[in-house]
Amino acid sequence: MGLAIDLSSFLLETHVSVQRFDVLAPNDELLRKIDGMLARVGRMGREVDALYQDVLSAGQAYERLVTAARDEISDGGPENLDQIISELLSIEREYADQLIPRIQHSERFLAKALKDEMLVTAGLVPVLKREIAAMYLMLEQIRDARWQFMTIRAEVGRGGTLPATDQAADLAKQLKALRR
């Protein structure tokens, strides 16, 4: 027969107090914070979805304006083409001044959020991506409408003093100039 094992010694060495496991146990305060964050992200998601729909509606309005102008090409186009182009350029600059810093901020925040498992899990990343997409889309729609009006102006044979381009490098320069 073998030796007797000192069970009391063994139990003392292996004993870990059950209460010590409470260190990482979610407490009510932490759970409320998580629930609050999830609710805020949900609200933000709904607000961003509504914003995106508003941006799409604005794009449709720009398309209707361009279509109306195109319908007048056979009659020489709208009389106020230069004014429309100038106004769209002004709107584009105003939006660029306000949105480009917001886009940059949101992109920095997105980069940080991608590294935070809790924010990813909470669903904040797709909300941020959609918000950024909405801002870019708004700027693109205004620019595209202005360019289409410049095309109409060229089609009806009226020169203009406002810039026009179809080159990506020129676009980058123009967008950079819009921020000034």
What can you see in these coordinates?
The chain is mostly helical. It has one domain (27-178). 75% of the residues lie in helices and 0% in strands. It is built from six helices and no strands. The chain has helices at residues 7-14, 28-71, 81-114, 117-122, 124-155, 168-178. Helix 3 runs antiparallel to helix 5. 14% of the residues are buried. The mean pLDDT is 84.
Can you summarize the main beta sheet? none
Q: What is the overall silhouette?
A: rod-shaped
Low-pLDDT windows of residues:
none
Category from helices, strands and their pairing = mainly alpha
Total helical elements: 6
Number of domains: 1
Chain-averaged pLDDT: 84
Strand content: under 5%
The amount of helix comes to over 70%
How many beta-strand runs? 0
Helix and strand element order = HHHHHH
Q: What is the end-to-end distance?
A: 92 Å
Q: Using only CA atoms, what is the Rg?
A: 30 Å
Write the layout of secondary structure elements.
Elements: H1 7-14, H2 28-71, H3 81-114, H4 117-122, H5 124-155, H6 168-178
Keywords for this entry:
180 residues, mainly alpha, 6 helices, 75% helix
Task: Provide a quick synopsis of the model.
This protein is mainly α and 180 residues long. Helices cover 75% and strands 0% of the residues.
